Amino acid sequence: MAIRFDAGEVITAMVTPFNSKREIDFNKAEDLTRHLIEHGSDALLVAGTTGEGPTLTHEEEFELLSTIKRANENKAKIIMNAGSNCTQTAIRSAKWAEKEEVDAILSVVPYYNKPSQSGMIAHFSAIAESTKLPIIIYNIPGRTGVNMAPETAAKLADKYENIVGIKQSFGDMDAVTELKMRCPEGFMVYSGDDSLTLPMLSLGAHGVISVTSHILGTELKSMIRNFKTGDSKAALNMHKKLYPVFRKLFMAPNPVPVKAALAHLGIIEDYVRRPLVELTVDEKEDLFKIIDRYTID
Fold first, then answer.
1. Catalytic residue among 28, 77, 155, 167
2. Long-range contact set of residues 32-38: C-beta below 8 Å, sequence gap at least 24
3. Residue 295 burial (C-beta neighbours within 10 Å; 0-12, 13-18, 19+)
């Protein structure tokens, strides 16, 4: 079976640039969109966790999406975060995203409520039946408090053709194997952690929903391409080269480090919304030592 919907191999979970008043800097959002497209991003995920989506108003999301679509010029696919721990809210978000003609949505496993596997099936079934958009499930137990079992993902993928993939954001490689064994052939598994991308590729993952691609997207894309074309040694060497960056970009809650790195490179300004706070001077010095190894000739 062919891939149901191909979002590409490198999806960037795009940060939302802010100015000193912590308002969205739409000009910087345009600049960042172009930068990501030019450096390996096949798709852009808007207003996700990395984009500080929980702190954005609906009006801000609308204007941000419009800005990114305009700068994108149909070069990359656009994926909208449309998840919630309230099923009806998630449905409304999915319908809004469809109206705005995005390419797909990302929808997180309900957080805080801690639903059973049956509850997850009911939640995602309702979303899938409400929209024709391709849906990528976001499974991140460390934030949601619950884990979607591979058999649950398989049941949903078998029943709904528009449930096209899953973002796995934890290091259970057995779960990746089970997803590839249980789910339809065209169902995509994405790594949700940059450092797990290569191991997951070896088990059949399609690509990564990435933070590092803000900084080193071309290199990340090269790693994936090398692996898929049979040059596993080159892929491993690139993984080892990028590994310090993978780790350092999560030295503090995401997206605090990557925003500091982007500001260091002059692409955006270094502001996050509360309850997040920017890195300290010492933390920035530590981060920039690593970033400069890869970005300064």
1. 167
2. 32/214, 32/262, 32/267, 32/268, 33/67, 33/68, 33/71, 33/72, 34/71, 35/267, 36/12, 36/76, 36/213, 36/214, 36/217, 37/72, 37/75, 37/76
3. middle
- Whether the CB-CB separation of 43 and 77 falls below 8 Å is answered with yes
Alpha carbons 219 and 238: distance in angstroms, whole number: 7
The mean pLDDT value for 141-154 works out to 97
Task: Please give the Cα distance from 32 to 16 (Å, whole number).
Answer: 9
Domain ranges of the chain: 10-235
Would residue 160 show up in a list of annotated catalytic residues for this protein?
no
Q: Which of 28, 77, 138, 248 is catalytic?
A: 138
Looking up tokens 């970009």 gives 249
Tell me which architecture the domain covering 10-235 has in CATH. Answer: Alpha-Beta Barrel (3.20)
Q: What is the pLDDT of residues 87-112, one digit of tens each?
A: 999 999 999 999 999 999 999 999 99
Whole-number average pLDDT of the chain: 96
What's the pTM?
A: 0.96
The pair of structure tokens assigned to 241 is 């080269």
Structure confidence at residue 254 (pLDDT): 97
Q: What is the DSSP string of 110-140?
A: PPSS---HHHHHHHHHHHHHH--S-EEEEE-
138 is catalytic: yes
Phi-psi region at 112: left, alpha or beta (left = phi > 0; alpha = psi -120 to 50): left
pLDDT at 1 over 50: no
